[in-house]
Recover the amino acids of this structure.
């Protein structure tokens, strides 16, 4: 069964949205396979966001993602990579429709509450960065 890597970012954690966001994935029918409250180090940020390392927004992104605890998770279910991205809404929360997570809780292109893998290969790469195989239940 397909799995994806989801992370509630420091803004979502600061605002106390973790329970509500987990409930959305549960209610859609997805199964929680792993969850870890942690800080992202600058080294882990550079690996996780390797495709963005040379972009002008990367320094601000690293500062943001390392600024407080995140909740790293693996969720499993039918077509979960694509459906989770649809539930999240566009990267720029100002463009995300109401009813999506970003569209309901943010107006920012940087502090946009949640991360979700953009493809099955990305999901496999990201899960391996954050979890050991034995940590998936
Ligand atoms: N980001 C940013 N400024 C930008 C584009 C992206 O700060 O102009 C941040 C934002 O937090 C985003 C993350 O970098 O979620 C990764 O960008 P990506 O384009 O991969 O968006 P996502 O896959 O998260 O929707
Ligand atoms: Mg992305």
């Amino acid at each position: 069964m397909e799995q994806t890597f989801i992370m509630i970012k420091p803004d979502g954690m600061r605002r106390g949205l973790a329970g509500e966001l987990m409930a959305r994935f549960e209610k859609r029918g997805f199964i929680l396979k792993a969850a870890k409250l942690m800080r992202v180090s600058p080294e882990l940020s550079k690996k996780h966001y390797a495709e963005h390392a040379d972009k002008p927004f990367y320094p601000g992104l690293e500062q943001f993602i390392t600024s407080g605890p995140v909740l790293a998770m693996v969720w499993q279910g039918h077509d979960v990579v694509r459906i989770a991205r649809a539930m999240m809404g566009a990267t720029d929360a100002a463009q995300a429709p109401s009813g999506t997570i970003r569209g309901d809780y943010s107006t920012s292109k940087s502090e946009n509450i949640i991360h979700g893998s953009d493809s099955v290969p990305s999901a496999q790469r990201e899960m391996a960065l954050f979890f050991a195989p034995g940590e998936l239940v």
User: Anything to note?
Assistant: The beta strands are 3-8, 31-38, 70-76, 114-116. The chain has one domain: 3-135. The chain has a mean pLDDT of 98. The pocket of uridine-5'-diphosphate (ligand 1) is lined by residues 52, 57, 60-61, 91, 109-110, 112, 115, 118 (CB under 6 Å).
